[in-house]
Amino acid sequence: MRTGYTLAGGNGCIAEARHRAIGFLDLARTRHHLPLSQRAVDLTQLVVSELVTNALTHAPGPVRMELRLTSRRVDVVVWDSDPTLPTARKADPGRIGQHGLEIVQAVAEDLLIEQEPAGKRITARIGLSGTPGPPGTSRSE
Predict the structure, then answer these.
(1) Considering 42, 46, 131, 132, which has the largest number of Cβ atoms within 10 A of its Cβ?
(2) Confidence of residue 44 (pLDDT cuts 50, 70, 90)
(3) What is the pLDDT of residues 47-84, one digit of tens each?
(4) 6 contacts: CB under 8 Å, gap ≥ 6
């Protein structure tokens, strides 16, 4: 299964992205009878929120979100028009905000950051089982 959305930004855009992700996963459960753990659903919402928030904060123009589902994982793919590749900052409990990429790295099985001809694409892979897989981060720049 796969679906994609263009998010124009503005008020409610992040909530819309989460809502679309939940609808996509619900469809996978009901129509395709794919067993999804509550953990996978919750983590997908979290990753969608963090990646879309980052894209809206740091890039002009529209944001594109794609969701891909296999029998093992859901891929959350977010594209934006800013070519600057993000890097997670060092952990700092005193820092307020700017923890989004750190959070995504902590919960995703894999994270791919790719430069595009116009912008960048970030893919976070989330396992569908109730237990996390081995952590790992891949970067293609």
Answers:
(1) 46
(2) very high
(3) 999 999 999 988 877 899 999 999 899 999 999 999 99
(4) 62, 63, 64
Instruction: Give the 3-state secondary structure of residue 32.
Output: coil
In 19-118, the DSSP E strands lie at 63-69, 73-80, 110-116
CB of 17 closer than 8 Å to CB of 5:
yes
Q: Which residue has the tokens 């999804």?
A: 36
User: Whole-prediction pTM value?
Assistant: 0.86
- Who contacts 74 (Cβ-Cβ below 8 Å, separation ≥6)? 25, 40, 44, 67, 68, 125, 126, 128
Distances (CA, A) of 116 to 23, 25, 85, 107: 28, 27, 10, 24
Q: Which residue has the tokens 């894209």?
A: 55
Q: What is the pLDDT of residues 109-132, one digit of tens each?
A: 999 999 999 899 999 999 987 555
The string of pLDDT tens digits covering residues 103-114 is 899 899 999 999
Can you tell me the distance from the alpha carbon of 65 to that of 138, in angstroms, rounded to the nearest whole number?
20
